[in-house]
């Protein structure tokens, strides 16, 4: 079983609006509303691959109850900490004519140090029997940016490896605690380094820097350009197959689920990278975060290009 942590869970609303434009009335031709947030998306895809995942994090207010209801409907095991305020709504507007994606993401509910301590206790109670801890996404207002670092330390005390997928100060502090794996995108990692990552070579250099901090595996996702993966000895670059673009929301989370699944299966790294890359690509071809299905993922496996970078 893996445990995913989503401090800033959301009601994910996706609208498909052909010809979307500003300063006028736009009417969607399709819409979906689901329980969302990065860790929830990871749990959704991980279970689609055949694994067992439990989701936790913070939820608040009526939106929080909608999130819980959605998780129950999807039969995703969950155990969230309820706080004051209101869980956020995240809106993605997809325009199939221009292949653009516009997002409006609320900040989320205010969270206190006491709330963070309650979540730490919740996570600790689930680490027994847990094989992997996945920490995903941004912090809601007021939440200590050190929370991921604290949870990584909690997991280490119980010999549970952690995957960290975040940005900003939460990522910076998390790196200091040497998680087993980090999976930032090129913009997130570039922000930490203070230098933009615009090429595979730059991603490789950044990955080496992360490995030098004591992390065992780093995956730098680069959108449609693919993913650069490094462990302590080797570096690989994988290019995804071309798929019809529908939505990129949750593709990084789908990729994280693929890495988690392959690593826990004990697969060779190249096979794990292939699966993770296909999870991200398959998610691009469907509306909704983490909505890709296993047959779609498996159909892409032989189409991934993997190069041994060095």
Number of self-contained structural domains? 1
Report the C-alpha radius of gyration, rounded: 18 Å
| Strands ordered across the widest β-sheet | 5-4-1-8-9-10-11-12-13-14
H and E string: EEEHEHEEEHEHEHEHHEEEHHHE
Uncertain runs are: none
In terms of structural class, how would the helical and strand content be classed? alpha/beta
Percentage of β-strand residues: 15-25%
CATH fold label:
UDP-N-acetylmuramoyl-L-alanine:D-glutamate ligase
Q: What is the β-strand count?
A: 14
- The CATH homologous superfamily corresponds to Ribokinase
CA-CA gap between termini: 33 Å
Sheet bearing the most strands, described? 10 strands, mixed
What's the CATH architecture name?
A: 3-Layer(aba) Sandwich
Instruction: Name the average pLDDT.
Output: 95
Q: Tally the helices: what do you get?
A: 10
So what's the CATH class?
Alpha Beta
State the shape: globular
Helix content: 25-40%
């Amino acid at each position: 079983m893996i445990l995913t942590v989503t401090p800033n869970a959301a009601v994910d609303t996706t609208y498909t609006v052909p010809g979307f434009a500003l300063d006028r009335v736009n009417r969607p031709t399709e819409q979906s509303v689901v329980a969302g947030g990065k860790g929830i998306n990871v749990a959704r895809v991980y279970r689609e691959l055949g694994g067992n995942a439990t989701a936790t994090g913070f939820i608040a207010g009526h939106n929080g109850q909608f999130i819980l209801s959605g998780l129950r409907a999807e039969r995703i095991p969950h155990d969230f900490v309820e706080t004051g305020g209101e869980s956020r709504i995240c809106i993605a507007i997809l325009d199939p004519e221009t292949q653009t994606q516009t997002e409006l993401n609320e900040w989320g509910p205010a969270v206190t140090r006491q709330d963070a301590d309650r979540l730490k206790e919740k996570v600790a109670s689930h680490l027994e029997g847990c094989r992997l801890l996945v920490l995903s996404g941004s912090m809601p207002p007021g939440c200590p940016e050190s929370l991921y670092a604290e949870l990584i330390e909690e997991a280490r005390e119980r010999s549970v490896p952690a995957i960290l997928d975040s940005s900003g100060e939460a990522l910076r502090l998390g790196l200091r605690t040497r998680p087993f794996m980090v999976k930032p995108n090129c913009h997130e990692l570039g922000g930490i380094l203070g230098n933009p990552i615009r090429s595979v070579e730059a991603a490789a250099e950044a990955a080496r820097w992360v490995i030098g901090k004591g992390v065992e595996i780093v995956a730098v996702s680069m959108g449609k350009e693919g993913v650069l993966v490094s462990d302590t000895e080797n570096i690989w670059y994988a290019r995804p197959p071309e798929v019809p673009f529908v939505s990129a929301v949750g593709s990084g989370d789908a990729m994280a689920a693929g890495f988690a699944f392959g690593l826990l299966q004990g697969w060779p790294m190249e096979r794990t990278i292939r699966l993770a890359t296909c999870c991200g690509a398959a998610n691009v071809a469907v509306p909704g975060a983490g909505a890709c299905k296993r047959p779609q993922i498996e159909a892409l496996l032989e189409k991934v290009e993997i190069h041994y970078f060095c």
